[in-house]
């Protein structure tokens, strides 16, 4: 596990984008696993800049996203489909037909989880999976629990996650209560993992993930069992780590 400490969110984002750019440059037809939320926005901005400067070509890249809210249609501004188009897909030359997310409008959880899992597996191995860390230690929407879920599944979001994410919605009542998420097994099968963490509110979860016991109570702790993880975290997120 490589840990890179940065002074700021901006520096974290630049470093993360450099790593993703190197993967795309070395393997133009790579498969990227992508995340949403505030953590990767700066990284996507930096990737867009590299594309605009002519330094990066996404035309052969395939992407699979970690998660999607159950019940939100693509046109909903809070859907992760919308987010990905807003921050990355519509701003670079990626082929939209090679970008995949769980389908939030399929309300049949078992069917959607099985469909997405089979799809991701059929596409091959994720070359680099980008992750953010939840304040409660979740990765993807794998919430703290008593076991690690292997494949894509439907998650009941924890109250703390609904609280954390209500900033994107009009009120906590508008935050969907469920989401589809890749499982821990799906994430761990990626060749490389890149975790970006910013802000003091993540400090405890980051410390627990890196130094606490490996336990499904802190889903991020499982990353210690992965052979190629890079964590890029700003000073605030690292503030509890000496
Ligand atoms: C989003 C995802 C989540 C977020 C996490 C942190 O696709 O998988 O695990 O990465 O909730 O969210 P932010 O970055 O908004 O603090």
UniProtKB/TrEMBL annotation:
It is an enzyme of class 3 (hydrolase). The active site is at residues 67, 136, 138, 143. Its EC number is 3.5.99.6. Gene3D superfamilies: 3.40.50.1360. It catalyses: alpha-D-glucosamine 6-phosphate + H2O = beta-D-fructose 6-phosphate + NH4(+). One of its GO terms (molecular function) is glucosamine-6-phosphate deaminase activity. Catalyzes the reversible isomerization-deamination of glucosamine 6-phosphate (GlcN6P) to form fructose 6-phosphate (Fru6P) and ammonium ion. Belongs to the glucosamine/galactosamine-6-phosphate isomerase family. NagB subfamily. This is Glucosamine-6-phosphate deaminase. The keyword Hydrolase applies. Pathway: Amino-sugar metabolism; N-acetylneuraminate degradation; D-fructose 6-phosphate from N-acetylneuraminate: step 5/5. GO terms for cellular component: cytoplasm. Keywords: Carbohydrate metabolism, Hydrolase, Isomerase. The keyword Hydrolase applies. Residues 9-224 form the Glucosamine/galactosamine-6-phosphate isomerase domain. It comes from Anaerostipes hadrus. One of its GO terms (biological process) is carbohydrate metabolic process. Pfam families: Glucosamine_iso.
